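Sample 1 of the test manifest.
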Amino acid sequence: MARRPHGCNRLVAPVAVMAAVALASCSARTVTAFRLQHDAEQVQSLAADGALLALGARRGDVTDAFVRVHAAELAAEAEDLRTVLASADPGPARASATAAVVRLSGRVAAQLDALRRRPGDRPLAASVHTTLDGIARTAERIAGRTS
Amino acid sequence: MKPLQLALGVLAAIGGFVDIGDIVFNTAAGAMFGYQVIWIVVIGALGIIVFSEMCGRVAVVTQRPVFDAVRTRLGYGAALITLIASLAVSLLTCTAEVGGMALVLRLLTGGDYRLLVVAAGIGLLIAVWLLPFDWIERVFGFGGLLLVAFTVGAVALGPDWGQLARGFVPHVATSDHLIWAYFAVGLFSAALMPYEVYFYSSGGVEEGWRAPDDLRMNRITSIAGFSIGALLSITLITVSAELFLPVGIAPDFLGTVGLAAANPLGQIGLLLGLAGILFAVSGAAIDTALSGAYNLAQFLGWPWGKAKRPSEVPRFSLTWMVFIAIALVVAATGVNPIELTEYSVIFGVVAMPATYLPVLLVAGDRDVMGEHANGRLSATLGWTYLVLLTVAALSAVPLMVLTNLGQG
């Protein structure tokens, strides 16, 4: 369901108990296997979502306004994920996989930001589609390995 | 009973079935569990049919709305708690719907979210002020029918019809049982939001429904309207299962939902789908605001009625305006409407049994309802759903906490 930003900057819960639970989960600084898998799956989801958007932009199935808005929200989510995961302590066992997810997340954000800036550029959309599709597959493999 | 009036009522019920809670939970569940969750939507739809039919029947026979029954049957103290819970859930839902309106407007125009929240709130105030009750139902109900773009899109995607048909057979998902249970409760609850019946029953009183014609209309509108409306929900599960599940997309944004119409149908599908969502969430925002005003006025004994001039029912009119204004202000803070929706659906079902039980008791009371009291089938379904609602109400919050809002 709706992802809570890892940085908690947009978290507004209507019930105090829920807010406390959410804040507690956001304060975790260690990269557990569960969290790494979860974050890799998020990167996969964001990349696949972005790839679908880029495909729509390439085929002219979506309006420029739609591309700008949706690409921006996906990019912001990917950047948020990258920032939080990069600042977490992965430990030696998960350092390499964590760094890979951080890198992928950053690439997703960059690709989507490029699409946001030039929503009507079909060759760019085709390139973004291919790149994000590849990133989604890589993130899926990482998530599968950490499960 | 006029056929045209009946047809309009059914169409409005179809279009009004889906709100932001259905959109969020159906697409998310379809992306995670595919067709395996369809039968839960069917159970939820049957529940809202049973409940709304009883509410409508009670309104026709007694000329009294739901909250009157709540106060009479539960006593002042318990009814006051029910009122506070209902108002809180309606306000939460109204805020989510206003935020949802702004999200859709942003996807359509690319404008600033907060300005669009303000525009959405002001638009709602003007619409409720200017439009008569039946026009509110029809404009937003018919507009919600544009969601049929997702149905066309689902067919165009060439779904696995065998898997889809198997989805109607009750079964439990083979993995992630706790998360599946959370989604099951969410899907069930999204189909059974309390504000829907408050609005429906108060509307029946407003429109002066009378036996026997309006009893038949109530039955047909409930059964046909909500059944076909549930198909729109199943459509959302279908597009999600076909488009998002295979590539691991969690549809956490309304933009992602829009892609489900754009991918198979192009720009026209995108625009129709987004317009359908806009009408659906706008209608639900109005329903929730009016439901809050209905509940408060009926509980406190104030004069009420959308059909009356605001000067005749000043406290009722002020209440729905305050509802929309609060929703506007909260949504403008930047709270995530999708996350808010999840809370509203979960807390909605927690509050539901306290509203449902009094209606069930009144609908089965021969002293009050006479020959129109619940028959054997209605009573069996009614009590069965009380059990289901109670189980859902008791498990909703623990599941929400244990699954971290379905994120695992």
